[in-house]
Amino acid sequence: MSTSPSPSPAAPPAGTARPTAVVVDGYSAGNFYPAAFAAAGARVIHVQSTPELIPTMLAPDLTAYDENIVCSDEERLVELLRPYAPVAVVPGQESAVQLADRLSEALGVKSNGTALSPARRDKHEMIEALRRAGVRCADQFKSDDAELIVKWAQDHGSWPVVVKPISSAASDGVFVCDSAEEVRAAALRVLETRDIFGFANAEALVQSYLKGTEYVVDTVSCDGRRYVSGVWEYEKILLPSGQNIYNRDVLLSPDEDPVPALIAYIHEVLTALDVRWGPAHAEVIVTEQGPVLVEVATRLNGQVNPGFQELCLGADQAGLTVLAYTRPEEFQREYADRVYSKLRPACIYNADTTLDGQVAEVDQEVVARINALPSTFSTSVKYAPGARIRPTTDLLTATMRIYLTSDDDQRLTADYKTVRELKDSVYRLA
Fold first, then answer.
1. Does residue 349 sit in the same domain as residue 337?
2. What is the extent of the structural domain holding 165?
3. DSSP string covering 139-152, please?
4. If you average pLDDT over residues 396-415, what whole number do you get?
């Protein structure tokens, strides 16, 4: 595969009509879509599928949109959107994937369709779709009965196993279990709680533990042809609770092992799930047998940062997605069947904490020290004074996100270690 230059979105020629793009529930990384579509000359409409915004997610900036349509009646929503003749209907976050599939199909625009939509959202059905297609995958079982989950784990006969929700994200409710007692506790915990999008967990999923290093593979598809926009190695920390939390994502070169094998495997996965349009964010573990999917989401990587990606990779996933929808011929000519370039060493650090209490103050001097490090590209401090901070259990409870890049690998590592030393000094508790 060959590499490509960065896209340069341009507005349509004078006198032509502005195309319209629709973002469904533009939370989290979906906030990068309005600027990307606007740069391509498109007006952007937001669909809010719930009467109130979801409180657990980073809210969409509704001021960035030409219009916000609040509607939970899908038939009505299709009729409201039809006059705009949108060029794209994209999910702003994972919980909007199936709705975006249904809307795009009903409107007759570029779409992954609804036939395999459940397999692109439900983690159990996702793995079963791979199994039916002959793609390497984990063993698994789901149930609304914790005791049946325990029985499967015992009959499976290999420890540890992984217990998690069917349709959550950001490592929410994921437990690595070494015994029947731990499986029971994890399954009950999942079944008694809601996922990060506010939906009740009607079932819990148990899977075989995939032993090996975990990686992220990000792609953008355009009519079935793909560009690999980045491959990162995950570094995670296993807590005593059995929860595996994010620590650092490290950018890999496209020609270093095991990146080529990961890319080949992800093409199999996306083909099996009929992903023909838009972004995908896949998590894969390389086992002794080869790459095996943890899960894949047909939305932007939640850690996308366009400026950071352009600097380190030459192009960003949000901008590439917009190009695929608005100028597909250009995308196919410049990016299809190609891969990113590693222009600079880079990592993304999600700061964990054991702090527990109310934030009294954010120490801006410590934040300034982090920002002054040569490798720091940007720092996102999550909690404001008055907020409740708890020990980290998943990506959502990380206290900060720091993007780091440098021409010098040793400098990058040294600055990362300094950030780890400073992270808990950022917050002063009441």
1. no
2. 139-208
3. -EEEES-HHHHHHH
4. 94
Cα–Cα distance, 225 to 422 (Å, whole number): 44
- The Cα–Cα gap between 261 and 167 comes to 27
Q: Give the largest Cα separation in the chain, rounded.
A: 68
Q: Is the pLDDT of residue 198 over 80?
A: no
CATH number at residue 262: 3.30.470.20
Rounded Cα distance, 361 and 373, in Å: 22
What tens digit of pLDDT does each residue of 367-400 get? 999 999 999 999 999 999 999 999 988 777 889 9
My answer on whether 218 and 329 are in the same domain is: yes
Question: How many domains does the chain divide into?
Answer: 4
Give the integer Cα–Cα distance in Å for 177 and 241. Answer: 9
* CATH number for 60: 3.40.50.20
Nearest to 233 by CA among 270, 293, 284: 284
β-pairing verdict for 140-143 and 204-208: antiparallel
216 and 151: one domain?
A: no
- Note the pLDDT tens digit of each residue in 226-274: 999 999 999 877 767 666 677 899 999 999 999 999 999 999 999 999 9
**Strand 338-339 with 2-3, pairing:** parallel
Report the pLDDT value the prediction gives residue 9, as an integer from 0 to 100. Answer: 37
Distance CA 15, CA 391 (A): 55
Taking each helix axis from N to C end, the angle separating 97-107 and 74-81, rounded to the nearest 10 degrees, works out to: 50
Local structure of residue 380 (DSSP, 8 states): E
Strand partners, 338: 2, 227
Residue entry with tokens 């990686």: 215
| pLDDT at position 11 | 39
Pairing of strands 277-287, 213-222: antiparallel
Identify the CA nearest to 175 among candidates 190, 194, 159, 191.
190
Q: 406 is written with which tokens?
A: 């440098």
| The model's pTM | 0.89
How large a percentage of the chain has pLDDT more than 90? 82
Do strands 225-238 and 338-339 pair parallel, antiparallel, or not at all (unpaired)? parallel
pLDDT score, position 243:
65
pLDDT above 80: residue 174: yes
β-pairing verdict for 427-429 and 204-208: unpaired
Torsion of CA 327, 332, 335, 339, to 10 degrees: 140
Region 93-103 average pLDDT: 94
- 13: Cβ contacts below 8 Å, ≥ 6 apart: none
- 190, 208, 226 — which closes off a domain? 208
Among 111, 126, 152, identify where a domain stops: 111
Coil/strand/helix, residue 351? strand
